[in-house]
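Cross-check.
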Amino acid sequence: MNYNHNPHAEDKSKIIRDHLYLVDILVGRMITQVPSFMNKDDMKSAGMLGLLDAANKYDTSKNILFKTFAEYRIRGAILDEMRKLDWFSRSLREKQTRIGRTIVDLELQLGRDPEDHEVARAMQLSLDEYRSMLGEVGHLGCVSLNETLDNSQEGSSFLDSLVDERSDISPGARIEGQQLTAKVAEVLALLSEKERLVISLYYYEELTQKEIADVLELSEGRVSQLHSQALIKLKTKLDARLH
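Predicted model, tokenized:
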């Protein structure tokens, strides 16, 4: 639907009705990535606010589809609600950063991707303690990957390069997206085979962690750990390449 920079109330109502399905889609994708105290109703309420905000602030001069703009607003509103619930604790962020830095340091020392037990030893943790820490920071890794890379409302996020969503975008934005995707591909190639499989099955095939566990014949907890570790590696490695 095309409309002016300042659409009438009836135009806003129609575009909101036409895109309500986006809230359900994004909630469905993110439901496994949020803390247990945030339920689907909380997410839908936040997502609706994001859709309303998108309808109020959409500007056709930005040369971006409303669907694309709304997805960012809906996703952002859900993440904002998580922040309001004080999910981002300083201690968890410190743990996430510590894991990422340890992995990078070991890569420089060993000249290869470190094994779990090597990371654990470097952090002076048992293997079980290290994997437990991965479970704690898993959602933080996911949210940081959902945040836009250029800190703008309409910018590309890291996960947009993992999920193949086709849309009509400007040539400039398409080139930037291709460059980012190329960097992501480089980083993905550095992951272990199991980590790549988990990322592929989760973001491309859209399987649940339980379904991935069945496919790979692993426990659901182990899949969650691999997912968390892969996201931390991807974020750390991509940050290094971008900055």
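Residues 220-242 form the longest helix (23 residues). Residues 1-6 have pLDDT under 50 and may be disordered. Passed to J.P. for a second look.
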